[in-house]
Amino acid sequence: MTTTNPNEVPKYHATPELLDAIYARTAEQAQERIDAEQRAREWPHDVDQLLAKLAHTVAAHEERIAALEARAGVGRG
């Protein structure tokens, strides 16, 4: 009859491939956090900033559309 010690826990042995995957995921999570913090800093903090950002975006899109139409020889009529 064999008795086992209830305090004996099997040891965990990570393979190099598993460690590489863990480190890669850790680096990916760190980069995601950095990107999220950057987006939060760039986000408008009040309505005036939001409206100014939207107006700038609309103007940039209108300029691009006008350039594409000019290149294609089509105009808004």
Descriptive account of the structure:
With 77 residues, this protein is mostly helical. The protein folds into 2 domains: 14-43; 45-77. The chain contains 2 helices and no strands. The model has no long low-confidence stretch (mean pLDDT 88).
The gist of it:
This protein is 69% helix and 0% strand. The protein has helices at 16-42, 47-72.
Strand content: under 5%
Q: Which structural class do you get from the secondary structure elements?
A: mainly alpha
| DSSP strand count | 0
What's the average pLDDT?
88
What string, H for helix and E for strand, traces the elements in order?
HH
Number of helices: 2
Shape: elongated
Largest sheet: none
How many domains, as an integer? 2
Rg, Cα atoms, Å: 28 Å
Low-confidence sequence ranges: none
In angstroms, what separates the terminal alpha carbons?
95 Å
Helix content: 55-70%
Layout of helices and strands, plus pairs?
Elements: H1 16-42, H2 47-72
Which key terms come to mind for this protein?
77 residues, mainly alpha, 69% helix
